[in-house]
Amino acid sequence: QLVESGGGSVRAGGSLLLSCAASGFTHSSYCLGWFRQAPGGRRLGVANIHFPDGTTYYDNSVLGRFTISQDKGKNMVYLQMNSLKLEDTAMYYCAALDDPGVASFQCPTDEYNDWGQGTQVTVS
Q: Which of 62, 64, 99, 92 is nearest to 77 (CA)?
């Protein structure tokens, strides 16, 4: 189960922290990712992280500006977004890839099988 929070409106150059309460995983290894989709646009995976090895991946459009992290004790995954740009405006979704034996190299490429409802980020 995935529940996002933390979206909102921010001026260009500002920061936002997105949070996702992530629980109910079936397997001992899984991927957690943040995706975004702007109106009329395609869904884009912006960042993901593998549990348990912690490997992260970022889309080039956010590399150096966004940071994904996980607090396993609190069952939370975060997306710290800095230096926000107009083109970062989108609905942001938290998602999980919870399959047997998921390896970190699968996190950027495989289809995720559990999704949150999304949280809107608007940069102006």
A: 92
